[in-house]
Design a protein that fits this description.
There is one protein chain. The protein is an alpha/beta fold. It has a single domain, classed as TIM Barrel (Alpha-Beta Barrel). It contains 12 helices and 8 strands. The chain has an 8-stranded parallel beta barrel with strand order 1-2-3-4-5-6-7-8, surrounded by 5 helices. Strand 7, helix 11 and strand 8 form a beta-alpha-beta unit. It starts with 7 loop residues before the first strand and ends with a helix. The structure holds phosphoenolpyruvate.
Length: 253
Amino acid sequence: MSEERLKIVAGNWKMHKTYREGRELALDIVERLTTTQTMVILCPPFIHLKSISTIINDITHLELGAQNCHFAEQGAYTGEVSASMLRSVGCTWVILGHSERREYFGEDEALLAKKVDAALTHGLRPIFCCGEPLEVREAAQHIEWVQRQLEGALFHLEADEFARLVIAYEPIWAIGTGKTATPQQAQEMHAAIRQMVADKYGAQVAHKLSILYGGSVKPNNAKELFAQPDVDGGLIGGASLRAEDFVTIVKSF
Ligand code: PEP
């Protein structure tokens, strides 16, 4: 059944790469990527979006995403970028709710619900990040934690809106730490998320939902993670900054 789901590998460059370095990385990735059924999404910092959209223009299964957007259409929000602005430079995706945005910029479920709405209104598909800190995992509360994140930020959506989303499960203790969730830990949570979505939106929507794993995915562990039945790809941080590693991960299905 899982064949019907879109397989996705998204690269979150975070706050890395000057303009020239970003162009070089994108060109290097394009050169190494031979045709793939996997949807590859590059999510560089804002300053790169226009030039990379020109580089990946018309390449099937290679799309552009931003790492954040504001919830308002426009206005006096110094330093912010709106969903419609992102669309205007060729973005089709946006990462929302990354744990770094939650931790350093105080983003909570109420704010994220507004950002998700803005993204969908303007034709951007959110990659919605969820995941628990270490103490919550150690207290065996991780599933309830993630359920609250989904309920707070997403479960106000209608089923047809929800069907535009991708969810990325990123346990905070595994991000940038070199500590990966075991394939079994990832599978347990992904299956639980799919069940939550089935309970809310029905089996069909849940079955079609792509759920990505994020947290220290590398060329040497991607295969085993992606082999899990409910793991439909990855959101890749550190390893997305090296074309060779990133493309090896893309080819790990
Ligand atoms: C991320 O920030 O989304 C991420 C998964 O980072 P890393 O791969 O570096 O752990």
